[in-house]
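Researcher: Please translate sequence to structure tokens.
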Amino acid sequence: MSAHPPRFTVRALRCDATHRRLLGPIDLYIEPGLTAILGSNGSGKSTLLHALVGLLPATLKVQGEILVQGEPLENMSAAKRAKTIAWLAQDVQTLQAAESFQTSLLTVQGLIELANLATFGWTMQATKSSTAVLEHYLQAFDLLSLRFEALQHISGGELQRAQLARVFAVQSPILLLDEPSNHLDLQHQISLERAMQAHHNQAASSNACIYSTHDLNFAMKADHLLLMKHGKVSQQMNLSEASDEEVQASLRACFETPVKVFRLEGSRKAIRL
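Model: Translation complete:
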């Protein structure tokens, strides 16, 4: 158990559409560190992340309790929520959001500067600190040469990197990332992993990054693994404490397909057989 309190505490969470249950019941704790969420399509990964950030559609019936660092999510003001949780939607939603900005020709730099809203509100104050953060993440995600390009003129992978830079630039203690490695090539997947690890190392490791993925090896980079199946959490495990055999058995049960977990140069790897 971490020395820090859970970043999220979820109790009896249920989420229902008109004719089917999307989530639940779910009870879980999410501790500081990197938590990877794995599961097949439709297992509830994105729905759970939307619930944690408080962005489930009003058309859904939601029951249960979500505490963010001990505080009920529903009691948090929009400003406090924005400072506490930085959110990256899945690529389809990300592209739709970008398209909504195209009429104003928002640039890559302008998108990242939206991170200032969480800290300064609509005044968008420019400070030495926020300028340094902007430059840092432009460089971290290889965007310096694209900083003044309009969003409608860049590729899907470049847009994903710009959205990632925006999320990290908020400097929130909690990151919620829905399939953040989508559209990223190998070089920029490494950049993402470095940024996630750096976020984790801040604040005496009390920060948390929760991310969904379909990439088994990307999931093996995490401290904690959360497996989902049919809208429920089928298993949680601390990857540093679990053996390769235990992880392998859990992945096989989750995906109902042969998976091999092994070590390569000291790092845990997982492949589908």
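Researcher: Any highlights?
Model: Residues 11 and 27 are 5 Å apart (CA to CA).
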